[in-house]
Design brief:
The termini are far apart. This protein has two domains: 44 residues, no CATH class; 164 residues, no CATH class. It is globular. The chain is mostly helical and 264 residues long.
C-alpha cells in the first residue's frame, strides 16, 4: 500500500505516513466520516484551528515565532489561517448585505455638515453606501498586508532590531490580520444583532485592531510597555505615510490617464 499523498510505501498497520505526515485513509468517504473530519478540524477542543485561535491571544509569539522557526504541525499554517479568515469575511459580507443593509447606510451630514441643502447634489459623500466598500473587504484585507509588512519591517530595521527579514514580518502580519479579521467579523455581526449603532461598532472594532496589533508587537519583540508603544506608533506613522503616498500616486496616474485620453 502506498500513501495517496506522496506515494511512499506504507506498512499494513501504519496510521500516518512517515514521509509527509498525512493520515492513512482506508475507508470510503461517507457522511459519517466526512462529519467526523469536519468535527476534528473545526469543532473538537484539540483541533488546530481552535489551538491557533486561542494561542494567538494568549501567546502570539509562540505561534508566529514557531512558524518562522519551522514549527508547522502544531498550529494552522499561516496561509491556511488567512484563507479561513477570508472565508469568515465572506460570511460577514453576506450577513451584512442581507440582514443589516439599513444599519450600513451612512449619514452624509457626517462628512458635509455645512453643505447648503440646495447644493447637496455637489456633496461628494451624498451617495455613500457602505455596501460598496463592504463587498470588497476581502480584497482590501489582502492588499493591506504588504503595507503593514513593509511598515513593521522598516520600523524595526530603522531601529536596528533586525531579528526578522521582510518575509518573516509578512508572516507576523498575516497571522495578526487573520486573527483580527475573524474577531472583527464576530464583533461586528454580534453588535449589529444587538442593534448597536454601526459607527459605534466600527469604533469598537478599530480600537480592538489597534490594541491587538500593539499587543502582538510587544509579545513578539519582547519589549516593555513604553518601548512597544513607541514602536507601535512608528509603525502606524510609516503605514500612514505609505498609504498616503500610494493614494496620491494612484490619483496622479488616474488624472494623467484621463488627460491623455481626453486629448486624443
Amino acid at each position: 500500500m502506498t500513501c495517496k499523498n506522496c506515494n511512499s510505501l506504507l506498512e499494513a498497520e501504519q496510521r500516518y505516513c512517515f514521509e509527509c505526515g498525512a493520515k492513512v485513509i482506508r475507508n470510503r468517504l461517507t457522511l459519517k466520516n466526512l462529519s467526523s473530519d469536519f468535527s476534528e478540524q473545526f469543532l473538537s477542543y484539540d483541533n488546530k484551528f481552535l489551538k491557533t485561535f486561542l494561542a494567538l491571544f494568549k501567546t502570539p509569539e509562540e505561534v508566529i515565532e514557531g512558524y518562522i522557526n519551522g514549527t508547522r504541525k502544531k498550529y494552522v499554517n499561516v496561509i491556511q489561517y488567512f484563507a479561513i479568515a477570508l472565508t469568515v469575511v465572506g460570511i460577514q459580507v453576506f450577513l451584512m448585505n442581507t440582514f443589516f443593509k439599513e444599519a450600513m447606510e451612512l449619514d452624509p451630514d457626517m462628512f458635509g455638515m455645512n453643505f447648503d441643502p440646495e447644493t447637496q447634489k455637489d456633496n461628494p459623500f451624498n451617495n455613500i453606501k457602505y455596501e460598496d466598500y463592504n463587498n470588497y473587504q476581502s480584497l482590501i484585507y489582502v492588499l493591506t498586508i504588504p503595507f503593514s509588512a513593509i511598515a513593521s519591517w522598516l520600523t524595526y530595521f530603522i531601529l536596528g532590531i533586525r531579528h526578522y527579514n521582510f518575509t518573516e514580518h509578512a508572516v507576523l502580519n498575516l497571522y495578526y490580520s487573520a486573527q483580527v479579521i475573524i474577531v472583527n467579523a464576530v464583533i461586528t455581526i454580534g453588535l449589529l444583532c444587538l442593534n448597536v449603532d454601526f459607527m459605534t461598532t466600527t469604533y469598537i472594532s478599530t480600537f480592538f485592531i489597534l490594541v491587538y496589533f500593539f499587543y502582538v508587537l510587544k509579545r513578539v519583540f519582547k519589549s516593555s510597555f513604553l518601548i512597544a508603544l513607541a514602536h507601535f506608533l512608528l509603525v502606524m506613522v510609516i503605514y500612514g505615510v505609505l498609504f498616503a503616498f500610494i493614494m496620491i500616486l494612484t490619483i496622479v496616474i488616474v488624472v494623467i490617464v484621463m488627460l491623455v485620453f481626453k486629448s486624443k
